[in-house]
Write a structure and sequence with these properties.
Four Helix Bundle (Hemerythrin (Met), subunit A), about 75% helix, single chain, about 0% strand, about 130 residues, mainly alpha, 5 helices
């Protein structure tokens, strides 16, 4: 493992659960923006790769839900819808490209909601959007 990967892994493990959750949202939002640009550039391989990664992130977010919490059922339905919509965008490409912005908006709203909730719970400010490269 090279130095940069070791540093990146160590920094992720040192984050709080809330920071890791926000990082997942940030990565999904970043990938959606990249997918939109890849579609404009007709780079379909990168477009599909980005949407596949976003789908994996959303599936992971759904997998880590604590279904004993009432809000988790609503979040699960939102995540299921996002996965469905992502598959439609991937299949429809040009016909569905406007959906990417709407999906990004939904994820951004969820991110802001989790950020606000974590601030209230921890009574501290969570770091602004972090960026993962690679």
């Amino acid at each position: 493992m090279n130095g940069y990967n070791h540093y990146k892994e160590k920094s992720i493990y040192s984050m709080s659960g809330a920071e890791q959750l926000l990082l997942l949202f940030d990565e999904a939002i970043k990938r959606l923006t990249r997918a939109e640009q890849s579609l404009k550039d007709k780079n379909y391989k990168d477009f599909e790769d980005c949407l596949t990664r976003v789908s994996r992130i959303v599936r992971y977010l759904m997998d880590i839900l604590d279904m004993e919490q009432p809000i988790s059922w609503d979040l699960k339905r939102i995540y299921e819808y996002l996965i469905f919509d992502l598959s439609r965008v991937m299949a429809g490409r040009q016909r569905r490209q406007d959906e990417i912005g709407r999906i990004r908006h939904i994820l951004s709203e969820l991110r802001e909601g989790f950020d606000g909730a974590s601030r209230k719970v921890n009574d501290m400010h969570i770091a602004k959007r972090a960026e993962v490269r690679g």
